[in-house]
Amino acid sequence: MKLIGRYDSPFVRRVGISLHLLGVPFEQLPLSVFSDAAEVRKFSPLGRVPVLVLADGEVLVDSAAILDHLDEVAGPGRRLIPAEGSARRRVLRTVVTATGAADKAIAISYERRRPAAQQSADWVDRCRVQIEAALGELEAGWSTATKTTQAEITTATMLAYVRRVEPAIAAEGRYPRLDRMAADCERLEAFRACPLADGISARIVDAGKRA
Fold first, then answer.
1. Nearest Cα to Cα of residue 70 among 21, 10, 31
2. pTM for the whole thing?
3. What is the Cα–Cα distance from 194 to 143, expressed in whole angstroms?
4. What pLDDT does 202 receive?
């Protein structure tokens, strides 16, 4: 298998971590949607990542579709999203909230790539408000899990990305439950194998120690 995309995307990173946790061997092709756009479009016409190229050549695009396939292959005992019931609904709600926050952080990052005169401060502020709402909901409802699920993976990767793009929004100590969860996740070998960027994971681990 080949995973296309860079781990500076929380969506690529959550797929890479999931592959490692499930013990699925793969090769990463760290193509950028900006500097390698033409190459990415050979696999994904919209130029989106992540892309997972299966061993038989089939191409899966979008992290949700890829993770659904991985859960199907993993089977009931190892899947990262429970198959049914309240546990499944809880994880899915968490994942939707976390990916929504990640989308808004990416929107801020993209806005900052525009010429300064064309950037919208109102748009950035709106995205910040939405990220803070998502983090507040996640913090208020967070409960410690007995195993790592897609809820932990997606929330931890989102938090790391938000801290890279808008560090003040997720300042250390503001969300202590999420701090501790993310720090625990970042210590896992699967997370360490998929670093967001130099220093990011270390800061999250340190925040968890102090929370």
1. 21
2. 0.93
3. 25
4. 46
